[in-house]
């Protein structure tokens, strides 16, 4: 009996050690980042493309040329409430972080202390970005006004508050490959990069499974709002019937072909895409036209769905 119990104990320890090992963070190595330095001027447009201010500016803060990334916005989900942190260049924010710390946070979801970040932070899209682009974005972030606001803790119940479990989530659902593959034109390739990586459009417009992983087979086919406050529309060609020119116009002005204007979170998106070049907006439209058409099921009554034509 003692031998059996000892064997079981050894197996349990071995299993726990293996689980700890496979769920460890996977940062980009120092060698891969060697020699990379950021360009703040170039980083400004990348900052807009990535939509950083949309989440990290404090709630009800007026728009500004130099946003203060003090955090505080709350994002309610089925797993708990996530609170955007202060990422301004202050000691309370990320002012004491190295460039490598910031690049790993953005692209690998790993904190300077070696903890996993929850996928509410869209590192699972940013992981497809070019390292140089993220270095440029980091350089621009360091030029923004500092904030002394303390980052507020997430409100996550057990067992989701176990950070190490995010390592298991990454094993199951992290994907560093683009969804749309094949022989793409340079314009479509650029659009894929803007939509799938920097713009992280799939984070809102793709349905998720019970554990919060993206259902990539239904890429951009529409999804319930995580807060239960409506439905993000289907923007595959099966749901979004606009021409490329109409998509480009909406991304620049927010006006739809029906002489309506986008609202809610999509208005924040347009505030970012309006800062891109005409070429980049055309690239995004060209990409959306080659996404596999997927019919999305009708949302449940009372979810406040908006069609693609209404919400963009």
UniProtKB/TrEMBL annotation:
Cytochrome c domain boundaries: 38-145, 186-292
Region (Disordered): 293-312
GO MF: electron transfer activity; heme binding; metal ion binding
Source species, domain of life: Bacteria
InterPro entries: Cyt_c-like_dom, Cyt_c-like_dom_sf, Cytochrome_c-type_DH
Keywords, comma-separated and alphabetical: Heme, Iron, Metal-binding
Keyword Metal-binding: yes
Pfam families the UniProt entry points to: Cytochrom_C, Cytochrome_CBB3
Xref: PANTHER family: ALCOHOL DEHYDROGENASE CYTOCHROME C SUBUNIT (PTHR35008:SF8), BLL4482 PROTEIN-RELATED (PTHR35008)
Protein name (record): C-type cytochrome
């Amino acid at each position: 009996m003692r031998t059996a119990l000892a064997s079981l104990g050894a197996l349990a320890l071995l299993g726990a050690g293996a689980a700890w090992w496979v769920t460890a963070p996977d940062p980009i190595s120092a060698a891969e980042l060697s020699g990379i330095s950021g360009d703040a001027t170039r980083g400004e447009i990348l900052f807009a493309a990535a939509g950083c201010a949309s989440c990290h500016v404090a709630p009800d803060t007026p728009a500004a040329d130099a946003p203060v990334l003090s955090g505080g916005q709350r994002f309610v989900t089925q797993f708990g409430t996530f609170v955007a942190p202060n990422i301004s260049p202050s000691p309370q924010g990320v002012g004491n972080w190295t460039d490598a710390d910031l690049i790993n946070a953005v692209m690998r979801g790993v904190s300077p202390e070696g903890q996993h970040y929850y996928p509410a932070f869209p590192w699972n899209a940013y992981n497809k970005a070019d390292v140089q682009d993220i270095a440029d974005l980091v350089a621009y972030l360091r030029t923004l006004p500092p904030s002394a606001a303390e980052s507020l803790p997430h409100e996550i119940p057990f067992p989701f508050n176990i950070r190490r479990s995010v390592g298991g989530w990454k094993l199951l659902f992290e994907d560093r490959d683009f969804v749309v593959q094949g022989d793409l034109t340079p314009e479509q390739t650029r659009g894929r990069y803007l939509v799938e990586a920097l713009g992280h459009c799939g984070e809102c417009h793709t349905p998720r499974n019970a554990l919060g992983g993206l259902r990539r087979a239904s890429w951009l086919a529409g999804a319930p709002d995580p807060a239960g406050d409506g439905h993000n529309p289907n923007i595959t060609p099966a749901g979004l019937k606009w021409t490329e020119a109409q998509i480009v116009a909406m991304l620049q002005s927010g006006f739809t072909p029906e002489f309506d204007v986008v609202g809610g979170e999509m208005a924040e998106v347009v505030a970012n895409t309006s800062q891109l070049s005409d070429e980049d907006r055309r690239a995004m439209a060209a990409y959306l036209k080659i996404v596999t058409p997927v019919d999305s099921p009708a949302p449940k009554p009372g979810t406040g769905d908006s069609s693609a034509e209404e919400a963009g």
